[in-house]
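Ticket closed. Logging final result for Transketolase.
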Amino acid sequence: MDTMRERFAPVVSRILDEDPRVAVVLAEIGKDGFAEARRRHPHRVINVGIREQLLIGAGAGLALTGLRPVVHTFASFLVERPFEQLKLDLGHQDAGAVLVSAAASFDWPAGGYTHMAPGDVALLDTLDGWTVHVPGHPDEAETLLRHAVAAGDDKVYVRLSVQANRQAHAVDGARALTVREGRRGVVVAVGPMLDAVLDATEGLDTTVLYMTTVRPFDAAALRRATGAAGTDVVLVEPYLAGTSTAAAGEALADVPHRVLGLGVGRRELRRYGTVAEHVAAHGLDAGALQKRIGDFVAGA
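Final structure:
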């Protein structure tokens, strides 16, 4: 199976052929994947070099001319380094763009902490009007990329990862899916966390909701699920733990509830290791999740 990022350039290259309004802006990273597209569309595939603030500024400028920019680099360079440009060049100017990241929270451990961005979604949460997609499979990434490009002039973030579930689901860019029904609590699995959550909750009488679009948060789906399964909610997210606890709490504000946010911890892991080792160190493997979810639900 190809990775989400391997799917990204071919899909967006086809979109460039189909839609003359679309442009791609790169900061050196990923340029080889667009070499052929750049030959076909030299004025709509732009590489600004290793200048991430300019990356966002150029994307915003293209948006203000009426184009639909797709802007790509590693998450730490796309959200964290040029955050002021996200806030002002896009947000303050009310300009839209599709930001597509790679490397996720720790997809390239050998790159060190400079190439890790577990806080990217939480940081975007401080800004208004962003849609955030977190696909869990390359097929879902393709679907959500097309949704993002077609979303008028909205500000959209698509978070790609090397971690992926075994199978794709029919995502629509808005609603959560009920993957398993139970009567003792609801576990919300975000993107590539679904397989681990399903393995961890095997034998537990819990509902599992699958979210690949986390902003706007599907409050209606959570309320429906808790109506049948009770109001204990566990959020399992592939980025900073607790990122969506406020959104879940707001969805259930009128009923007594408990929310547990699981995800990447704040403590920096200072050894490179592997992706699997980072997953385990943050307690996001199936075995650790089984205990953490089971203890929480049992303590109701």
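The radius of gyration is 19 Å. No further action required.
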